[in-house]
Amino acid sequence: MTNRKQINTVVVAGATGMMGRQLVKLLLEDATYQRIIVLVRRSMGISHPKLVEKKVVFDNLENEIDASVLKDADVYCTLGTTIKQAGTKEAFRKVDHAYPLTLAKAALRHGAASYIIVTAMWASEKSRMFYTRVKGQLEQELLSLGLPRLVILRPSLLLGEREDESFGDRATDTIFRLIDPLLLGPLARMKAIPSKDVAQAMVMMAHEGEAAVEVLESEMISLKISKRNALSRV
Hints:
With 234 residues, the protein is an alpha/beta fold. It has nine helices and nine strands.
C-alpha cells in the first residue's frame, strides 16, 4: 500500500452535487492534501489555491484522465443521480454505474492509492429494486477489479441542500426528520444521515483505514462521526 505520507493529491468526481460540494469543502480545509482535482462538466464557481478544475466529458472519461491526474491520489467518487433527473433507466445506469466503474478502472490503471465511493443502503445485485440493484452491481464489479484500497459507504437517505431540490425532496426530508426518533434497534440503520457526515466519513476513511476493502453501512458512518464529535469535545 502507498505510504499515506506521500499522498497529497485527491481527485473528486461528482463535485458539483450535494455530497460532492460538502466533500470538496472538507478537502480544501484538510492540511494533508495540497492539490484537489475536481472532474467537472462545468466550473464550480469557486477559487482556491489548492483547487484544480479539470473539465471532462464523462462519456470519454477513460481518455481524458491519466497518471498525471491519478498517480498516488486518493480518488473520491460521489457521482449519482435519480431516475427522475436522468430521465430514463439507461441514463441513470450511465451516471451511477458506467461512470464510477470507468473512473475506478482508470484509478487502478494509473496507480491511484485508493478509491472511495458512496453507493446506497441495501445495495445488492440481487435486489428487486432497480436503484439498489444497479448500486449492488457496481459494488461487485468494483470488488472484482483488485484495487489497492476500496472503501464503500452505504448511507441511508441523505439530508442536505440539493441544487435542484423539489417539493418532493423537501417533503421526504421532513418526514424522515420526524420519524427519526422512532427508528430504534434494528431500525436505527434507516435513520436519515446528513450528507456532510458522509463526506466527513469518506475523508476519515482515507486517512485512517488500512484494509484493502472496507464497507461502511449507514449506522457505522453515524457511529464514526459521533465518536469523532465526542472526542473533539473532550
